[in-house]
Each structure stands twice: as C-alpha cells, then as structure tokens.
Design a protein that fits this description.
Blueprint (H helix, E strand, L loop, with lengths): L3 E4 L6 H8 L3 E4 L10 H10 L3 E4 L3 H9 L6 E4 L6 H14 L1 H6 L1 E5 L4 E5 L4
Parallel strand pairs: 1-2, 1-3, 3-4, 4-5
Antiparallel strand pairs: 5-6
Length: about 120
Amino acid sequence: MGLRLLIDMNLSPDWVEVFKQAGWEAVHWSNTGDVGARDDVIMEWARMNGCVLFTHDLDFGTLLATTRAQGPSVIQVRTQDTMPRGLSVRLIQLLQLYETTLDSGALITVDEIRSRVRILPFY
C-alpha cells in the first residue's frame, strides 16, 4: 500500500509534494485539522488514519514514550533547516529503507549526520 504521511504544522506544506513524488500519500495538518490542536489530538488522528507523523517537534517522541503507545510511527527532524531542498533526498532514502519498520511502529530521529530508529512501544 505504501506510506501515508501526516505533516505537522511546524513543517512546510511543500513536503506534501515531495512525498507524493516519491509515491506516498501525504497531507499537511493545516488541510486536515484545527491548526491549534494539541499534540495528542494530532497523534490520535495520525494513528486512526494509518499515517506516519512527520514533525520537528520533540513532544511526539515524549508522548510515545510516556504512553508506551504502539503507534503512530513518528519521524522527528532535528535539523536547523527543515525545508525540502536540503533534506528531501536523505529523508526519502530513509523512508524507503525503513518503510516496513514504520508500518510496524517506530520513532525515527533524523539530524544532519545520522538517524536513530526506535521500535514501538518503548519499555
């Protein structure tokens, strides 16, 4: 089926087209829900709709850890420049590499140099 991605408010809507060109479904939260929604509401929407949440916000990783949730999968970008022009090639490669892992439930943290993958739930 392929990945379905929900792009958080703190990332550019330009990511939608990047993910669509890679063959995945993508939607920006601003086109889906209340722009002032709490993180737990966004996370629940992603889980209920089978989406991987793509964010620049560390709170989602914390929510996964404190609730020991099995999903949704979350990709956290930990870079200064979060725009597609500087990050899209690397991110697409990571998503292709870890697509099956993301389908099962994972937290992937990406910075300029490395990525870290943690399988859900955390114990």
